[in-house]
Design brief:
This protein is mostly helical. The chain has one domain: Helix Hairpins, CATH 1.10.287. The protein contains two helices and no strands. The model has no long low-confidence stretch (mean pLDDT 84).
């Protein structure tokens, strides 16, 4: 904001208007900071949900891999019994499980990419939040300095009036 020199012609109404304007700007900056804080919290909640989904997908992947191993053993058993029908059924199940694993790996990779994106956004929002807080601090300091100058001018005017 531009610096304004206080002249002896400044009225109490102008001082009140100036004070209200500063208060309004501070409220606006606080609203911006609150907005970014809410965005940050929303992204954290989305990130946690994605992490839970990722953990569930990883558990499902492990379960499916164990099932594939189990089916592989079953396949070996069926080969020893020379049962062509059971063998084909087991192979179909294994292929189905492999397809499921590929799908889950794709979903897992997608979730990992989404988490990376959310973490990058989280970093950006932290910077934005910090910047907003700095702006509020700077405006508070400028307002304080302006009030001090106004008081000094008012005191000087009172001494001149006396």
């Amino acid at each position: 904001m531009k610096r304004v020199d206080v002249c002896p012609m400044t009225t109490p109404e102008y001082n009140g208007w100036w004070s209200r304007r500063w208060q309004q700007e501070i409220q606006e900056e606080n609203a911006k900071a609150d907005h970014w804080e809410r965005k940050f919290q929303e992204m954290q909640m989305r990130n946690e949900a994605l992490e839970r989904s990722l953990a569930e997908s990883q558990k499902e992947k492990c379960r499916l891999k164990a099932r594939v191993v189990e089916l592989g053993r079953s396949l070996h058993h069926n080969r020893s019994h020379n049962s062509a029908i059971e063998l084909q059924s087991s192979l179909n199940k294994i292929e189905e499980m492999k397809g499921n694993i590929k799908k889950l790996e794709s979903v897992l990779q997608n979730c990992e990419l989404r988490i990376e994106l959310l973490e990058a956004r989280e970093g950006h929002w932290k910077v934005e939040l910090h910047h907003s807080h700095d702006q509020v601090k700077n405006k508070d300091y400028l307002m304080y300095e302006s009030i001090v100058q106004i008081r000094e001018v008012a005191d000087h005017l009172q001494t001149l009036a006396v």
